[in-house]
Amino acid sequence: MQKAQESERSIHRAQVSWMQSGEDLEMAKSFIKSNPDTSCLLSNQAAINAFSSILLALGHFQLPAYSSTEMLNLCSSVAPEVEITRAHCDVLDSALNRDLLGHT
Length: 104
Known about the structure:
The protein has 104 residues and is mainly alpha-helical. The chain has one domain (2-100). The chain has 4 helices and 2 strands. The chain has helices at 8-30, 36-57, 68-76, 86-100; strands at residues 2-3, 60-61. The protein has a two-stranded antiparallel ribbon with strand order 1-2. Helix 1 runs antiparallel to helix 2 (36-57) and helix 2 (36-57) crosses helix 4 (86-100). It is globular.
């Protein structure tokens, strides 16, 4: 992760990421009963995008986008209040690894 100055561009990217997070979460909700694996994937992506929006707004870029827990680790260094989501991120990452990647 690299850091640049906060700018209109970084704020715009953060807004786009935040909006995408909301869209991913709404889609995840719609798949809870019919396709829980897809719901899990979309929930994880929503978390990643939400954390990304915080970091992007603060001027960070080249963010990893593969794990909600990894994004939380980065995000909590600049916004400690997000630490309350750790247990949920652990569940999302665990479910993603177990269900979608075939790990047990």
